[in-house]
Amino acid sequence: MDTGTHFAMGIGLFGLAHLDPAVASHPVTAQAVLLGTVLGSQAPDFDGLFRIKGGAAYIRQHRGASHSFPMVFVWTFLIASILSLTHEGAALSSLWMWTFLAVAVHVLSDCFNSYGTQALRPLSRRWIAWDVLNIIDPFILTAHLAGFLLWWRTQVHPGVLFAGIYGLIILYTAWRWRIHRSLVRMVQKQAKQAKRISVLPTIRPSRWKLVVEEEGRVRFGEIRRRRIRWTDEIADTDRNHPAALASLKDPDIASFLHFSDYGYVQVQPFGNGYKVRWADVRYYHKKRFPFVAVAYLDNDLEVISSYIGWSSEQRLEKKIQRSCTIETL
């Protein structure tokens, strides 16, 4: 989920924590638990610091080891240990329990969107992305904001209030899961030649994106009210091109493919060499691929320059050209 939703969940879990008598009756414990749930709800995303080392390092690390199940315990230990030192007298069992829950909810909720996590590391490096919730889900965010308003303006018990809210969110997520599975089965009946079908959530709950990968092509569409509307199609014929295969040695391309196994590759002649663009088909929007990795190769198939990240095509070309002298190609 996005940072704002995780922050809202951190506050919401503090509200839920009022079901714990130690939190409800002890101000020091309550203050420590508030910080524990807020920090715990953000902690796995501290891997954003890898941006300092560049886009490739960040993409390789983001939602990887920091979101693994051993790190749930490590984040809990670090946060709760520090807070136990700064909040003397706080009930340690409550502090540890609610901090752990905040970290665990962060990792679990990230598994429900299309970006996914490597939550099973070190047992498996497989990305877990259930494609059920959009990164920003209006229902979940609105439910939290409504809860905060009721908490502020009424005398309702915050623990009971957020127990009800999280019960609704669980039911909502189960409903979305059921719809997703139903739509996948529907598409399977209509796209019998598909090698892979991806039904992806959008910010509009009633609308889903559709990506169908077939032999030699990728088709894009959207689903509304269980009706498929095909919107575009691209050829997928460059995977075995020598330049595409040579680009796999580049660190930026390797980082891209480490994160995504939805890579689609295009090879274009460029000067005295080739431009190889890998794109993630999940994020195809308005005939553009916002998440790409691009490598420029010379005629000997040696990589001259490369780039990875989220960018428009125009911004991408400017970044590439700043680091790559066209005359050398």
TrEMBL record:
The keyword Membrane applies. This is Inner membrane protein. Keywords: Membrane, Transmembrane, Transmembrane helix. Pfam families: YdjM (PF04307). It comes from Planifilum fulgidum. It comes from the Bacteria. The chain crosses the membrane at residues 69-89, 95-115, 127-152, 158-175.
